[in-house]
């Protein structure tokens, strides 16, 4: 038996069954069927001529409705409206699906209903037949009885409260992201169930407290037991996991499996490693459970108001969750959802991982710009003003939050001065760097940003080394405009490298990735949204390599003198600027027609007979020299 339900709305003619049934079906987002539409013509003719139906007339009709219920229950819950006046009729209607049947009896007095029927036009039942209906009615003992004196809204509210319908979507894990996504889903009108584990004595009733503290979660169902949570969901179940990536995701999957059924869908919305996503997909497939890996970006606020969503996996399965993900996603400038099917396997998580790699660099560049401006003698407020003035040229979410951060005071000082300079990480920058190395893509800025975080962590050694080696950056002699240009230059290289990495992965794994579409869903909702990202949508339609685009080439050329100046000055004055430096180093290497790699090849051939290709042999053949 699956968890779907058929709700029969019953009662004498004129009690308002169709109106209530339609409203209820709309509220639960399940199909609605009016039993009258399934009468054979002979029954309609009989009723139209003023004759009441007898039990023989009704038999076939009731069997048809029972079949309808059974067929629908295979797919979803549904509402069926039918007078169902006698117990024997109800027995027939629920035959074989008794445990999945709920009865709602709309009750009114003869006078109330006569008055209603007399107001009705074009109904094939005359009010004179009403008495026979009342005479036939056998009050059910197992129905929710509701007086028709209430307004239709009140009636539907009552039914909704009484009949615990299955939710259409489940959210597992009510941490920072899970809470925001649940609220977002509920605000979009979805019936959801939410779950958070309970740790006795420390964390109790997390889900219930969360539900009770947000109005939009009134009709959500909250659980701290996994079985109850899973059973509260319509099949096939759609369960989004918002838990810590890594082992915890595996534990949670194992906890869920015993309660899942074939065809259910698990959606991993965490920052999971794309290789693990493929493994989990295969593992769950062996249990006939679907799994899709979905990158989500936007942090707490983005998840609440509209994140950028990067789903990967089987497309047909994605289509079953697409309406939910697209509804909660941010919207781009054309009001399209910032959610698009990325590709097969772990491609969604791969793209999210590289998103984070690009994010690491964007953050590091702003940190370097801050240090440069600080070393030019600016206070945090002054740096904030300078960054603010760059918005028309280089606006981005990260630039905006950095302005806010720099203006934040703590007592008489700026809060930034009180934050320990050790940068944490949760793994995505690390994996991006590993993936870049494995795929042979030179994502040097991402590696530099990652290693800058790691270096920052050596706080004690740094303190000691600054004394031992006497590194003391002195005042920089730079124009602010050059710093702004250098920043923009490095951002172009960052986006080139990140997108190149995605492109290489697409080729290597056989994913059919659309980079322009990926840039589009990164124009809103996510941490790396920026004006530049908007510019990249048409650029990437032409080519995956943004450094082939004429406008970008011209911009790089125009900005180059500034990055040369800024990086040289930083080196001379002993100020570390790893990502700015690497951006210009990379471009210089990338734009070198004849590089020093011939020396490397010669060395490799010298000590290891690894062979080399010759400039005077176009065949591509490999040669070896006896160097001694
Ligand atoms: N924060 C962010 O900005 C973003 C985070 N992400 C990703 O989203 C996922 C969730 O992140 P976030 O919400 O920040 O993390 P939190 O740490 O805030 O929440 C983690 C959730 O996982 C639950 N959990 C942990 N261990 C277990 C377990 N053994 N069994 C059941 N539940 C468990 C926690 O429950 P409990 O409260 O009981 O410990 C909590 O509900 C992560 O993968 C993260 O990388 C993605 C984009 C942005
Ligand atoms: O995915 C995110 C933003 O897009 C998360 O905030 C993630 O935790 C950021 O990475 P890290 O913690 O390594 O800085």
UniProtKB/TrEMBL annotation:
It is an enzyme of class 1 (oxidoreductase). SUPFAM superfamilies: 6-phosphogluconate dehydrogenase C-terminal domain-like (SSF48179), NAD(P)-binding Rossmann-fold domains (SSF51735), P-loop containing nucleoside triphosphate hydrolases (SSF52540). Pathway: Carbohydrate acid metabolism; Carbohydrate degradation; pentose phosphate pathway; D-ribulose 5-phosphate from D-glucose 6-phosphate (oxidative stage): step 3/3. GO terms for molecular function: ATP binding; gluconokinase activity; NADP binding; phosphogluconate dehydrogenase (decarboxylating) activity. InterPro entries: 6-PGluconate_DH-like_C_sf (IPR008927), 6PGD_dom2 (IPR013328), 6PGDH_C (IPR006114), 6PGDH_Gnd/GntZ (IPR006113), 6PGDH_NADP-bd (IPR006115), 6PGdom_BS (IPR006184), NAD(P)-bd_dom_sf (IPR036291), P-loop_NTPase (IPR027417). It catalyses: D-gluconate + ATP = 6-phospho-D-gluconate + ADP + H(+); 6-phospho-D-gluconate + NADP(+) = D-ribulose 5-phosphate + CO2 + NADPH. Keywords: ATP-binding, Gluconate utilization, Kinase, NADP, Nucleotide-binding, Oxidoreductase, Pentose shunt, Transferase. Its EC number is 1.1.1.44. Gene3D superfamilies: 6-Phosphogluconate Dehydrogenase, domain 3 (1.20.5.320), N-(1-d-carboxylethyl)-l-norvaline Dehydrogenase, domain 2 (1.10.1040.10), NAD(P)-binding Rossmann-like Domain (3.40.50.720), P-loop containing nucleotide triphosphate hydrolases (3.40.50.300). GO terms for biological process: D-gluconate metabolic process; pentose-phosphate shunt. Residues 348-628 form the 6-phosphogluconate dehydrogenase C-terminal domain. Catalyzes the oxidative decarboxylation of 6-phosphogluconate to ribulose 5-phosphate and CO(2), with concomitant reduction of NADP to NADPH. Homodimer. Belongs to the gluconokinase GntK/GntV family. Belongs to the 6-phosphogluconate dehydrogenase family. This is 6-phosphogluconate dehydrogenase, decarboxylating. It comes from Algibacter amylolyticus. The lineage of its organism: Bacteria, Pseudomonadati, Bacteroidota, Flavobacteriia, Flavobacteriales. The gene is gnd.
